[in-house]
């Protein structure tokens, strides 16, 4: 079948990614077929293979893009030369804001990682470790500045990231707490958790 009128790679490619992300988040990676993605985009199933080699490659691309964007956005926002407490507050607020704006892909990053090949899983894990290291360096700096009381920076890193990412599981726009209120409360909890 010929390409549909108005179908262009710069439009179709992002549309495929967006529909795949939506369908994977709603129904689960295993339950979604390439035909379903194609139907949601409005193309023949075979056309998807012009943009991706297979369904797992599509999932990997979504997860890798998210991690690349997360790391780049944090590095662009990280306050240079600030003390550890100010850097930690910026990290907490950044993490909540960035992830709430990308709830579907954050969900996929935790629930569908198991569907990646060993090689692709290792790549995503490597990117996660890169991001976690950014937080751990802040915690180590806080120890060195004697403003944080943390027995183990690695454990504290994992606990803080799990707590912050958990906001995505319960937060609903228009609910009792605004995003700003949630960020304020979580910052207070994290500050107390590190003994600042």
TrEMBL record:
SUPFAM superfamilies: Homeodomain-like, Tetracyclin repressor-like, C-terminal domain. It comes from the Bacteria. Residues 10-70 form the HTH tetR-type domain. The keyword Magnesium does not apply. PROSITE patterns: HTH_TETR_2. Keywords: DNA-binding. Residues 33-52 bind DNA. This is TetR family transcriptional regulator. It comes from Thioclava marina. The lineage of its organism: Bacteria, Pseudomonadati, Pseudomonadota, Alphaproteobacteria, Rhodobacterales.
């Amino acid at each position: 079948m010929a390409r549909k009128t108005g179908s262009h790679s710069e439009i179709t490619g992002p549309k495929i990614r967006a529909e795949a992300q939506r369908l994977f988040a709603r129904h689960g990676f295993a339950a979604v077929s390439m035909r379903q993605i194609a139907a949601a985009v409005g193309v023949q199933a075979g056309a998807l293979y012009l943009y991706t080699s297979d369904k797992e490659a599509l999932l990997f691309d979504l997860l890798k893009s998210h991690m690349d964007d997360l790391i780049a956005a944090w590095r662009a926002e990280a306050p240079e030369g600030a003390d550890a407490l100010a850097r930690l507050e910026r990290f907490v607020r950044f993490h909540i804001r960035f992830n709430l704006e990308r709830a579907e892909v954050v969900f996929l990053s935790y629930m569908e990682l198991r569907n990646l090949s060993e090689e692709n899983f290792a790549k995503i894990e490597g990117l996660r470790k890169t991001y976690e290291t950014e937080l751990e360096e802040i915690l180590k700096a806080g120890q060195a500045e004697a403003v944080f009381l943390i027995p183990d920076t690695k454990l504290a890193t994992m606990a803080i990231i799990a707590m912050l990412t958990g906001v995505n599981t319960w937060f609903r726009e228009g609910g009792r707490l605004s995003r700003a209120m949630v960020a304020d409360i979580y910052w207070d909890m994290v500050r107390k958790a590190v003994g600042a």
